[in-house]
Design goal:
The chain has 615 residues and is of the alpha+beta class. The protein has ten helices and 30 strands. It has three domains: 205 residues, no CATH class; 199 residues, D-amino Acid Aminotransferase, Chain A, domain 1, CATH 3.30.470; 118 residues, Nucleic acid-binding proteins (OB fold (Dihydrolipoamide Acetyltransferase, E2P)), CATH 2.40.50. 21% of the residues lie in helices and 31% in strands.
């Protein structure tokens, strides 16, 4: 049903986006909306068949025919979305600021040119071209004009969802070589910038005290699954406050009299203390049990967690998402930031955009603990993307670093602040202070916690394909070693794979090094997805080797490149059950790979042809 996916992703009681309906006829309008969500992109929408056919264009449309812009087709939007401009509140799908960047009309162009020129086509021809994946049209907008084409990229890589298109400007009188989309930074409807829309009360949604200002903004992809946890958390907090209110009420009169007397004695000092953030923070730090006044440390060895098998619930523990990236301690001083890895390597130059972190922390000096993560298209942390960002080793070569991969620093602990060492302060109190000084934005997010609710958070993380969760004892101090005061509970996945080869053993290992794995794509090609070298004992190694040896062949069963050395090919007749942590993103050879694969056993009940990516 049209718009079903659009409605499924949104809670209209919480977002100003229009519910919408399918219109009976289309007016051939188009709109481009600049959208700052997890990352900035442009939404290109064409009014067709009573809805807005929509594509997300990361770099935005261009008037330069040399630019081939990636355009990811997304769900149809209602026609009433045409002039939507404002803020989608945090916690909703697509949360962020939306600007109407361009509007106008469009018309389809016949796929067959007449005398070298494209002529207008019918709506039926437009539908056929869209279905075929070669869709030509002409725009008459305020900024975009002339002929364009949308070309569907056939899924050449395993795991492709088939939503990839290219948006290309045709060569005509409206072509602009070297077109720079950033020179147009205002709305064509209201003339406002993104910043003005984000903080303007005239926007469709505006809050004077936005959650981001408190440092607790959550990524949209995670917020929906954690909403229930948040509600339970607030309910418990409310119950606790009500219970405490009875005791507090008895002392209210005494406190009021004492405060009044102090104000009379020194009214200026009282006012100054109340209005001074620095004074307020200093008094908080002085009152923290375990806080020690001393110079800022120059080196920190991160506190490490011990692995356990199963999630659990306990009121003595705080539970957090385990972010999959590079652990980094951040030293803030004199308006500058220094990032250091768990092995004491300096990461500052490698992630230069994080030099702006001091602007997001309300402090002159601080030491933070957190994780640098790279984000996928949905804003989820991905270790494979992080490896692409920094460059990864493939065979005997090292790929170039991809600086275009966006990163973010998830901060989850505070070790030092404004002259006070907080490592002997309880974790719960450290995080309370951290939440007050951290301002979430495009580069920084506060990693929230959920008291006592480990099982629910584990299931939420599992649904979103995350690496796992952490359990931290709420009273724990910061120990610079591995400890059982912090626990990590990883989420694993299993998949059945075809064995297409094996590699030579190395060192003291016997029989073989690893099994080379593959899955079949829709064209019945066996695609290499990695190799597993762990999960075997000595007897299992020998047993599997004898099977592999009997199937050895000179013919490579894989289609495309195989990133492995010293491979012996085998007939693709064996199926292995493999445990792994996640799918990587596209690597340099265009494929998908398993991360941390572990052999679990052979599946004699499974036909190799059943081992497909659709698993």
């Amino acid at each position: 049903m049209p718009l079903e996916e659009y409605k499924r992703k949104r809670r209209f009681a919480e977002t100003p986006e229009p519910p919408g309906k399918v219109e009976k006829k289309s007016q051939h309008r188009f709109v481009v909306q600049k959208h700052r969500a997890t990352r900035l992109h442009y939404d290109f929408r064409l009014e067709m068949d009573g809805v807005l056919k929509s594509w997300a264009v990361p770099k935005g449309p261009s008037l330069d025919p040399a630019d081939k812009r990636l355009a990811m087709q997304v769900e149809d939007h209602p026609v009433s979305y045409f002039d939507f401009e404002g803020i989608i509140p945090e916690g909703n799908y697509g949360a962020g600021t939306v600007m109407v960047w361009d509007v106008g009309t469009w018309e389809p162009l016949s796929p067959v040119p007449v005398k070298g020129k494209f002529v207008p086509a019918t709506d039926a021809e437009a539908a056929a071209m869209l279905q075929k994946g070669d869709f030509k049209f002409r725009l008459r907008g305020k900024r975009l004009k002339g002929d364009f084409v949308l070309i569907h990229m056939k899924g050449r890589r395993p795991g492709s969802k088939g939503t990839e298109w290219l948006l290309i400007k045709k060569q005509d009188e409206y072509a602009v070589p070297g077109f720079n989309i950033e020179q147009y930074d205002t709305s064509v409807l209201t003339g406002r910038t993104m910043r003005e829309i984000g903080g303007d009360k005239a926007s469709a949604e505006w809050e004077s005290d936005r959650p981001a200002s408190r440092g607790k903004a959550k990524a949209p992809w995670l917020a929906d699954t954690l909403a229930k946890l948040d509600r339970e958390k607030r309910k418990k907090a409310s119950t606790t406050k009500e219970a405490a209110a009875a005791g507090v009420k008895k002392n209210e009169k005494t406190k009021a009299i004492t405060t009044a007397k102090n104000s009379v004695r020194n009214p200026e000092a009282t006012t100054e203390k109340r209005n001074s953030p620095a004074s307020s923070l200093s008094s908080v730090l002085e009152g923290l049990q375990g806080a020690v006044k001393r110079p800022m440390p120059t080196a920190i060895h991160p506190m490490l967690a011990t692995s356990v098998d199963k999630p659990f619930d306990s009121p003595e523990w705080l539970f957090e998402i385990k972010w999959d990236g590079y652990r980094a301690v951040c030293f803030l001083e004199n308006g500058k930031s220094r990032l250091v890895s768990r092995n004491q390597n300096d990461l500052t130059g490698q992630f230069s955009e994080l030099q702006s972190l001091p602007k997001l922390i309300k402090a002159q000096t601080a030491v933070l603990d957190g994780e640098i993560v790279a984000l996928d298209e949905q804003g989820r942390p991905s270790f494979s993307l992080m490896q692409q960002r920094t460059g990864i080793r493939q065979g005997n070569r090292h790929t170039a670093a991809r600086r275009d991969v966006p990163i973010m620093y998830y901060v989850f602990d505070l070790l030092y602040l404004e002259g006070y060492d907080l490592r002997r302060v309880s974790l719960e109190q450290r995080k309370e202070v951290l939440a007050q000084i951290a301002t979430s934005g495009d580069l920084l997010r506060y990693s929230d916690h959920y008291p006592g609710q480990g099982i629910a958070l584990f299931e939420a993380a599992k649904q979103k394909g995350l690496e796992g969760i952490l359990a931290k004892r709420r009273t724990s101090c910061y120990e610079e070693r591995r400890t059982r005061e912090w626990l990590k509970i990883k989420i694993t996945h299993t998949i059945d794979c075809v064995i297409g080869g094996y590699t030579d053993p190395e060192g003291s290992r016997q029989y073989f090094g690893s099994i080379v794995l593959g899955l079949y794509d829709k064209k019945d090609h066996l695609i290499h997805i990695g190799q597993a070298g762990t999960g075997f004992n000595q007897s299992r190694l020998k047993e599997i080797y004898q099977l592999l040896k009997s199937l050895e062949t000179d013919r490579n069963p894989f289609y495309g490149p195989v990133d492995a050395r010293n491979v012996h090919w085998v007939k693709p007749e064996l199926v292995a059950e493999i445990k792994f942590s996640e799918w990587t993103h596209e690597t340099a050879d265009g494929g998908l790979k398993l991360r941390a694969p572990v052999f679990l056993g052979l599946r004699e009940d499974k036909d190799p042809k059943e081992c497909v990516f659709d698993q």
